[in-house]
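This is your field. Have a critical look at the following sequence-structure pair:

***
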Amino acid sequence: MTPDWGGQAALCLLLLILPISALIARRVPILRVLLSLASWAAIGAVALVAINQRERFDPYLQRIAAALKLDDQSVVGRETRIRMSGDGHFWARVRIDGVERRMLVDSGATVTALSAATAAAAGLDIKSGLFPLVINTANGQVEAQTATVRDVRLGDIAARDLGVVVSPAFGDTDVLGMNFLSKLKSWRVEGRTLILVPHHPNVLT
């Protein structure tokens, strides 16, 4: 879903009209009107940038962003849509056994990968084998352990008993891999939007 520039423009226009009307009503000189106009334009721009960049971390700003149609993740009909982030990646808001995390959607990752911190927060039962699992990542080979997430939720999509790998080597990054995407009816990228379509909303098996 591309940004609603019309809605943002309307908001900026409203922010500008209110102070201008007040100043004109008081017969303030045109120079002061222009200076005030520039100040309000700057304030409006900063507010929009703040909402765009911080709404994924603050639930209150998430509600504001959704109301202004600036949200980077939304459910439209049977589709969950994720807007491309400024870094060129798709980041999804996902619940891992009830714990909300911001996860990188990576079709190049065979399996979903969780940081040790996320696994601990979700209370996952880490399976410790005699020998650790060695997997290949963009940063080389790392040792990992396996676990199963009972419930994964993204938009109106829910996956049950999803296998994951866990390792401190992943740092703070959590990755949603192909073992999740392959459960969908389809997924595609249109422009700067990732579109996920489940076979049946709410449940993936």
Remarks:
- The chain has a mean pLDDT of 79.
- The first strand starts at residue 73 and ends at 76.
- The chain is about 30% helix and 35% strand.
